[in-house]
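Trying the structure run again after the queue cleared.
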Amino acid sequence: MERIRRGFRLLGASWNVLRSDKELLVLPLISFVSIAAATAAIGGVAWVTGGGSERETFPEGFDYVYVGLFYFVTYFIGIFFNAAVVGAATIRLGGGDPTIGDGLRLAASKTGKIAGWAATSATVGLILRSLEERFGFLGDLIIGLIGVVWGAITFFVVPVLLYEPVGAVEGIKRSASIFKQRWGEQMTGNVALGLAIFLVSIPLILVAVLIGMVSLPAGVIFGVLAIGAVVAVGTAVSGVFQAALYRFATTGEA
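Done. Tokens:
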């Protein structure tokens, strides 16, 4: 029970950090826009060059070049801005007064490590995608379970890469080690945060549907903006929670 209570306290502290540094919300928003732009660019190049269309022109494996590129770029962007949130939150948790620039500079100083972790994540993502397509419904269940486990044991990779002299592979091992120590707090915080996002999203979706019944464009715009805001808050809180739990796991300071 102490692990659960501590998990809630750390999650509450993470929310307080976000309330003190609301500008951290800008980072997930920039990440979202950047990923959307990268997706459009890669999709546009694939369409122009004919990727994924005629098998007589392009071999079947050609599609995976675009898919692999998409995975790497989007993972890199997401991890980079997540690292910026973790870095800024760590400064706040240590008593400092961080700016967005502080987080971005810290993330930029670890670009090589972030690229390595993005490449590793992209490779795992491609493998899981391939297995999922091969085994159908059973594959969906198995890959879903593997994805949950993978997400749990790699939860601390970003702060580890930021603050410890290790690369992506050693970062995974280190993250798994921390997970074994603090799995109770980690699962409590993640489940509580996910549930909160779900509960907040339901009324927003209903409002979007009601608006859409009057004006479809207005309903779509409201829904996208509302859910985007909720996701931005959830992503920011998750990043701060990563920083808080990593700090507690490595220093004992809650």
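The radius of gyration is 20 Å. Worth checking whether this holds up in the mutant runs.
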